């Protein structure tokens, strides 16, 4: 059984008296995508710097592709692709020059023309980096991370500033990486991106892990937050609201919405109330909480 792509155990990162990462553990299995989520200041960047070998942890340990990212840094770097949020290239060089330069560093690079075409950058190949839009710079940064055929890719806000089409193309590329056996650790503030792409999600808050699991596990644990029932109009719903401890409204004649943290017992009680009232129920619909709902609930204190 192969080692995990990334194994972080009880990592602590301090800056003077400030603890940025406080005992965090996570694992990225080979050929999977892990989304690392958290508000600004949650400790994501510091943790990535440890995984990328740009600083050692103050406590705990990290193994990346079976290697120590600091002690084995020179051996590890050719096997990694790192996409930064900004910077890292000479602003007066053209997109094509930059990509060919990075390709020259790799033993077996991808075809640069293919990457330019795939990421919609062909017409910008002779445009200097500083004259590219923010989304175009992001696409070039992604190409630079991929051109060396990495085994593991770190993507920091990969679709920031991209339009809808470029964002969809990037999602497809990331999914193709996984299909090819490449492991991906990405940070993003786009919760739908994490929910769509990630096999596993780690939510950080204040330097610690607030929640971890697959997107489906996290949203299932959060439960149902809205029950819609179509029934006879004009029912007196005050008793129902008290019974299920939720807000009940008749949004339009015969259309009832029951909003709150609804478990199976609450949903059964609500439907039982309609039956006891002798109301003819003709439709029932529920809405499960999204990953965004889970994230906001866990990080509300940090956001404030």
Instruction: Compute the average pLDDT.
Output: 91
How many angstroms separate the termini? 44 Å
| H/E element sequence | EEEHEHEHHHEHEHEEHEHEEHEH
Number of domains: 2
CATH topology of the largest domain: Rossmann fold
Key descriptive features of the protein:
alpha/beta, 4-stranded antiparallel sheet, 2 domains, 304 residues, Rossmann fold, Alpha-Beta Plaits, 28% strand, 13 strands, 6-stranded mixed sheet
Question: Any chance you could write out the topology, listing elements then pairs?
Answer:
Blueprint: E1 6-15, E2 18-28, E3 33-37, H1 44-51, E4 59-64, H2 73-76, E5 80-83, H3 95-104, H4 112-118, H5 134-146, E6 152-156, H6 164-179, E7 183-187, H7 191-197, E8 200-205, E9 208-213, H8 215-222, E10 224-230, H9 238-244, E11 247-252, E12 255-262, H10 264-276, E13 283-288, H11 291-303
Parallel strand pairs: 3-7, 3-8, 5-6, 6-7
Antiparallel strand pairs: 1-2, 1-4, 8-9, 10-12, 10-13, 11-12
Pfam families: ABC_tran
Membrane topology: Peripheral membrane protein
Main location: membrane
């Amino acid at each position: 059984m192969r080692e995990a792509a990334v194994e972080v155990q009880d990592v602590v990162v301090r800056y003077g008296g400030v603890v940025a990462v406080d005992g965090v553990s996570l694992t990225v299995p080979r050929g999977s995508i892990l989304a690392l989520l958290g508000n600004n200041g949650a400790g994501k960047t510091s943790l990535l710097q440890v995984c990328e070998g740009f600083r050692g942890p103050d406590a705990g340990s990290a193994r990346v592709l079976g290697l120590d990212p600091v002690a084995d840094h020179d051996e590890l770097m050719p096997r990694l692709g790192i996409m930064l949020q900004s910077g890292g290239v000479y602003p007066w060089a053209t997109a094509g020059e930059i990509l060919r330069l990075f390709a020259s560093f790799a033993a077996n690079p991808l075809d640069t023309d293919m990457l330019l075409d795939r990421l919609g950058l062909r017409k910008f190949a002779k445009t200097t980096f500083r004259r590219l839009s923010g989304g175009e710079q992001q696409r070039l940064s992604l190409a630079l991370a991929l051109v060396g055929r990495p085994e593991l890719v770190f993507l920091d806000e990969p679709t920031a500033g991209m339009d809808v089409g470029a964002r969809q193309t990037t999602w497809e590329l990331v999914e193709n990486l996984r299909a090819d056996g490449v492991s991906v650790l990405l940070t993003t503030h786009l919760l739908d991106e994490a929910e769509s792409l990630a096999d596993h999600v780690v939510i950080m808050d204040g330097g610690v892990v607030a929640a971890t699991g697959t997107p489906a596990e996290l949203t299932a644990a959060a439960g149902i937050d809205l029950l819609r029932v179509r029934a006879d109009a004009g029912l007196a719903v005050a008793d129902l609201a008290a019974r299920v401890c939720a807000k009940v409204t008749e949004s339009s004649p015969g259309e009832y919405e029951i909003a709150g943290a609804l478990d199976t017992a609450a949903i059964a009680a609500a439907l039982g109330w309609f039956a006891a009232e002798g109301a003819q129920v003709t439709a029932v619909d529920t809405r499960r909480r999204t990953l965004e709902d889970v994230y906001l609930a866990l990080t509300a204190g940090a956001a404030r």
